[in-house]
Amino acid sequence: MLDAAKVLPVDCVILTLLSDAGLRREEFVDLRISNVSKRTLRFRGKRDKDRKFPMTDRLLMGIRSFWVDRDENERVIDLEHGAIYKKSVM
Question: pLDDT tens digit string along 15-37?
């Protein structure tokens, strides 16, 4: 599935975040740039529990490519909740 997503880098980052970090759709859509550090991905999970995930180099490189010249309070990838289910999101 990741090989097919290489055509659109955003699809690859989405799949990596969902599979490697185990994010749910809501957690992914609400993920902010400020939640990402070199070592940790922090996000609010189910029942408002704070969760941390160790950041892999592959994941960090993929995410960083989408936040050039953006504010840290913006979403990592700006998608609406339903857009994640579409075949092509961008």
Answer: 888 887 788 888 888 888 888 88
Structural domain harbouring 58: 2-70
Structure-block tokens of residue 52: 């941390």
* Alpha carbon distances (Å) from 5 to 2, 28, 48: 5, 17, 31
Main-chain phi, psi angles of 31, to 5 degrees: -70, 125
Q: What is the per-residue pLDDT across 54-74, written as a single tens digit (0 to 9) for each?
A: 888 878 887 877 777 788 888
Q: Please choose, from the candidates 73, 6, 61, 55, the residue with its C-alpha nearest in 3D space to the C-alpha of residue 15.
A: 6
Whether 84 maps to a domain, the answer reads no
Instruction: Examine residue 58 and state whether it is found in any structural domain, yes or no.
Output: yes
- Alpha helices (H) along the chain: 2-5, 9-20, 25-29, 57-64
